[in-house]
Backbone:
């Protein structure tokens, strides 16, 4: 079978092309990705990153904002004037920091949930086998061939995520056993 034309031809590398400069200029043009919506809404694309953050009252470099204090031999060298330090910029958009602090103070909502399939699997195993994990491992509904330790771990996860539901389920099993006897 003949070879395809052009495949065996050697590709030439252009030594005169500066790829670093092309990459750098494309990266410089891109706007910064801002995750926080409060900052994104207050951002002014005509200003630099340092100017934008200074207007919002945020620090560009945390090491410069809160420097590590050096031990001074003479403590009287500090100068105080009008409560403002020279070179410190005025915060024009304080609402950004206030909104971020408010958002951070809200309690975090628990998002721990288990899949419905896992909940049904655990309830089935407990209902049919109780605390016998070796018997659970041999059950025909054990599709993923979990070992007894893996099944025990899944049951413990269910207990931790839904303690009240687990407690009610165990009580309902006890009442069913009482009625059967």
Residues:
């Amino acid at each position: 079978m003949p070879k395809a034309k052009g495949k065996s031809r050697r590709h030439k590398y252009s030594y005169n092309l500066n790829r670093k400069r092309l990459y750098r200029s494309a990266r410089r043009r891109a706007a910064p990705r801002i995750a926080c919506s409060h900052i994104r809404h207050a951002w002014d694309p005509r200003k630099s990153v340092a100017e934008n953050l200074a207007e919002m009252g945020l620090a560009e470099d945390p090491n410069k904002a809160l420097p590590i204090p050096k031990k001074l031999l003479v403590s009287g060298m500090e100068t105080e004037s009008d409560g403002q330090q020279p070179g410190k910029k005025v915060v024009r958009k304080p609402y950004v920091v206030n909104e971020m602090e408010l958002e951070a103070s809200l309690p975090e909502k628990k998002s721990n949930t288990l899949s419905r399939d896992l909940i049904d699997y655990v309830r089935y195993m407990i209902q049919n086998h109780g605390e016998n994990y070796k018997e659970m491992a041999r059950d025909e509904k054990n599709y993923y061939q979990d070992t007894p330790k893996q099944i025990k771990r899944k049951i413990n996860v269910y207990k931790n995520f839904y303690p009240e539901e687990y407690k009610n389920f165990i009580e309902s099993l006890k009442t069913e056993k009482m009625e059967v006897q």
